[in-house]
Amino acid sequence: MDLFIVITLALLAVIGIVVGVSNDAVNFLNSAFGSKASSKRVILTIASLGVMVGVMTSSGMMDVARSGVFYPDMFSYNEIMILFLGMMLSNIILLDIYNSLGLPTSTTVSLVFGLLGSAMALALYNIWGGTTDASLGDFINSGNALAIVSGILVSVALAFFTGHLLMYLSRLIFSFRYQKLFNRFGALWCGVTLAGIIYFTVFKGLKSTTLIPDVVKEYVNDNTGIALLALWAFSSLLLWVLQRCKVNILRVSILAGTFSLALAFAGNDLVNFIGVPYAGYDSYMYAHSADADLTSMSALSNPTQANFWIMCAAGLIMVFTLFSSKKAMRVIETERKLSSQSETTDTNADATNVSRGIVRGVRRFNDGLAAITPESVKRFISRRFEPLPEEERGDVNYDLIRATVNLTAAAILISIGTQLKLPLSTTYVVFMVSMGSSLADRAWGRESAVYRITGVMTVITGWFVTALGGFIIALGVTLALVYGGKVVIVGITLLCGYLIIKSNLKKDKGEDAEEDSATADLGKNLKMSPETALMDYTEHVCSSMEKVTMIYDRTIVAVFKENRKVLKDMVREAEEFFQSTRQQKYELIPLLRTLEESDINTGHYYVQVVDYISETSKALLHITRPCFKHIDNNHTGLSKEQVYDLKRINDHVEEIFSDINNMLRTRSFEQMESVLNKRDEMFDLIDEVMQNQLRRLRDTGGSSSANMLFFNILTETKTMVLHSRNIMKSLEHFVDR
Q: What distance in Å separates the CA atoms of residue 467 and residue 116, rounded to the nearest whole number?
């Protein structure tokens, strides 16, 4: 059975690396890609070199998985193997649950609290079984665990304020029009950045290796100030020479920062992916040695002696995933938009009262500060932070100055955490540095501030949720393994294998559907020729109206049949459709600014149709949600009379939408008058149905919740059809322009 566990841990380690790189490792690529510091191949190559160096120097972090949160000498060999297996299997279950619920997760947090939960489960097993007189505190390394947790939590706040401070000072010095001043003093500024990167990645990150002579390491440790000044002077001189050779030293700094952050990531986060499987492998090898003591695994308390070939294989898998993962590239694209200098922001997540309160408080604070600040100082600061217009900024998300700050701050913080053997969450550090720098760079305008603050709060809240969930699931899974024996071990392992396969197949299917969606990137049509724009635009409207028809019809039928599953699916599809249409409204504004004078009418009809589609999707959502809630709460179903009336309404809606879709496909609007007549007939029918329902209320009463649902469907159906007609009128003008 122990060999089965080792093989299972090895397979989970490979899966962990692939999933981890796809989700987390792209953090060190965002700045380079967002600022377009170099080509994709060059950036990935530099990052890959950093990853390989990082995995070769990360053995110290492996001790976290072996003895960071528990005392291994308190567990037998069989127990320690169950502990490691329980942690890894619970991590699979945790990720599957959280991905299904759309909750943010952190591999670092799940590692620490998963180990804590598994260790506590085995400690309780021994205590309850009466096999030991030790207390729970004798099993758990609470002091070290608290230090690790505190380090993660502090890093979140420290990363935000570090990114904010460095970005504010950098922008105050160079402004957005930095070229002229940077040609004079840029080498000194980049020299500070490069010196910090070299110190923390070479003299700190590689101090445990033989690459640096002991004499040099001792001198640097004893004379840190002098060493940093010497590094700054050397870096500044080197960059000054490169600058005079017409080399863009900002790009050099960004690529160096990318290498450094990749090295720091691999050195810090590799333990999240293979730390536990590696500890299991070491335990297996120790148990089969000649002098093994299977009653106590105190050998795990010794520092890890990393196997070169295992670490090399892990690094190669990371590099391969980096180059081949399509998901990694999609995550990069998402996170690049997060800190974009553009005012457009993702507003899919509603703002909270807390985020609104924070924005109001900061505004009042800024107003008070502005009142006591001299006008000359305010004018100077405003000039330094005056952003470039979009035509000068180009299609980059932010400039090279901000990319350099992001990489420098994140690399230094993660390197410090690695030296302190604190498994920081790379995702959170990079995210918070990026948020802090974008705030200082005034990318958080009044249009987006509440949403970005909500996003930050969601990430921080997700940390606590992940911690609690990881602990509870690991505790339960490990108890099941230790009490259930071989049958349960095999059963839960197969279950996790099924979850992995199901999750990957589901994601692939969803990603393919997303790529094929006709509603994606509507705004790109504005940059096409009028003929191409018309064809693509009407195709988009066609697919949108067909989606509305499908969701509405299936919702009404599901209400009749009280089919909860179908209604749940329709709510999900209606919400996704509504969010996509709402986001299109925000993406449209900056694109409209690029229109030529001759295309103003085109933009006018785009705005109209996008708005009408959004309102149609909103009415559809206001139908699906109450329908699902009604059935989900097991309320009384609709009466036969109500079902009959809604069937008549649904038949009219289907007929109207069929005519609309036919006109859209043929781009012929000869049936417009007929559609208008059918619409008026349907409105008359709705009025008639409402009067019938009012008479039924007076005579028989009926279920209050069913009556409210009935009236809601009628009202929102009328609104939905009305906006559908408006879409057709606007599109008719668009075609005839």
A: 10
Burial profile 70-91: b = 16 or more Cβ within 10 angstroms, e = fewer: bbbbbbbbbbbbbbbbbbbbbb
CA atoms within 13 A on the CB side of 350: 3
Give the pTM. 0.65
* CB atoms closer than 10 angstroms to residue 720: 21
The values of phi and psi at residue 55, to 5°, are -70, -25
What's 235-252 look like in SS3? HHHHHHHHHHCCCCHHHH
Its sign, for the CA torsion 560, 564, 569, 570, is positive
Q: Which residue is it, tokens 């606590």?
A: 464
Helix 107-129 × helix 77-101 angle, to 10°: 130
Tokens of residue 464, six digits: 């606590």
pLDDT in tens, 281-320: 888 888 887 777 777 777 777 776 767 788 888 888 888 8
CB 723 within 8 A of CB 609: no
Amino acid at 192: V
- What is the three-class DSSP state of 395? coil
Residue by residue, DSSP assigns 117-166 as: HHHHHHHHHHHHHTS----HHHHB-HHHHHHHHHHHHHHHHHHHHHHHHH
Residue 50: C-alpha distances to residues 43, 58, 113, 315, 326 (Å): 11, 12, 28, 10, 21
What does the alpha-carbon distance between residue 415 and residue 197 come to, in Å, rounded to a whole number?
9
**Residue listed under structure tokens 């988009």:** 540
DSSP 351: P
**Residue 314 CA, distance from chain mean position:** 24
Q: Where do the H-state alpha helices sit in 27-105?
A: 30-35, 40-56, 62-67, 77-101
CA–CA separation, 160 vs 168, rounded Å? 12
Which of 476, 468, 487 minimizes the C-alpha distance to 118? 476
Provide the pLDDT confidence category of residue 515 given band limits of 50, 70 and 90.
very low
Q: What is the per-residue pLDDT across 497-510, written as a single tens digit (0 to 9) for each?
A: 887 777 665 544 44
Number of H helices, E strands in the chain: 28, 0
Distance CA 426, CA 416 (A): 12
Residue 190 near residue 400, CB atoms below 8 Å: no
Task: Judge contact between 119 and 392, C-beta under 8 A.
Answer: no
> How many Å apart are CA 473 and CA 123, to the nearest integer?
16
Q: What is the DSSP letter of 397?
A: S
> Which residue is associated with the tokens 């003929």?
531
Ordered by where they begin, the domains of the chain are 2-509 (no CATH), 519-736 (1.20.58.220)
Read off the pLDDT of residues 372-418 as tens digits, 9 standing for 90 and up: 888 888 888 888 888 777 666 666 667 788 888 888 888 778 767 76
